Amino acid sequence: MKLRLLISALTNYRNLGILIVLSVLSSSLESDMSYIAYVASFVVYLGFSLQSFTSKKFQDNFIHESKKKQIKNLDEMCKKLADETKAYTNAAYYKKLCSIMEDKTEIVQAYFKDEFNYLKERITEQTLNLVITYIKLLKNFCKRCRDLNLTDINPIIERINQNRRKLDFIKDQKVYEDLKKTIEMDEKILNRLKEEKQDLERIDTKLDYIKSTVSMFKHQIGMSMESEEMIEKIENTLNEATALESVLEKRHKKRNSAF
To answer: What's the pTM?
Structure first.
């Protein structure tokens, strides 16, 4: 951070302008004096650069410009992730994706349109992070929903029923135990699919909550109702969503490695 601030001070238009003007004036002097003048010009330039580096106004402006650039980058990341995710959505979830992207666009436009406001800047940055997490969650959710929908559990249920009927007629104890283990394995598969379906229902609820949160912030920002409580709420929501997305990503990688 300090290195980038120093570079910004050294490349500041005012400071470079002073260096150029003094260098031009130095070049017009006699050769004996020009060298000293060049050194003096560079010292003056360093002095003004150091003044900028230690100036609170310059530091605040540097931080603000850095945040603006970061917000633009986050905005572009949202667009890129949304383009990647829309291929996995159905009509209903594509509509939700478009809706949160519209809210995101209005929040970003409000940020760049209005005068600098620290709270609005912080809320805009964290809202974009929340939208990014929402899109990642949505992509993972839609991919897993598609996988589950393609999983036909009827053959498993039928196999369990058939094997249970067979148990009544088996006399050999070893065969009986083997068949019982087969039934238990199939039941575990069904339970795992049932648990995953319940997890997806919880994620669906979380997605709707995140979307509602972003929409609420859009309206509050539009009415200039920014507050510290908003920042706290969005950060809590972001932390919960990020933790959930991380768990899903680990599960996804674990499933892939199993095949």
So the answer is: 0.74
